[in-house]
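Project standup — Tuesday

K.O.: blocked on the structure for the chain from last sprint. Re-posting the sequence here as requested.
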Amino acid sequence: MSFPGGRHEPSDANATALREAQEEVGLDPARVEILGALPDYLTGTGFRVTPVIGLVHPPFTLTVDSVEVAEAFEVPLAFLMNPAHHEVRVFRY
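H.V.: unblocked you, prediction finished:
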């Protein structure tokens, strides 16, 4: 799971995601199979987020850029897909 960010042209979301993941956590783009993208999300602060989904093929190693990333971790897909671990929260500012 990675949430890297960077500026991109609208037609360049996949390349941007791969570049930013490499810059921030050292993920080799050759290890990533892009599966697709989720709909854009507009944040309350005006940023447009394009979630790009990829399958990372092992083996891989990460080299975290400590200026941009606090830590790297993995979550098993089975955990994420289990509805018992899902919740909806509403925040009002």
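K.O.: great, moving the ticket to review. The two ends are 27 Å apart (CA to CA). The first strand starts at residue 32 and ends at 37.
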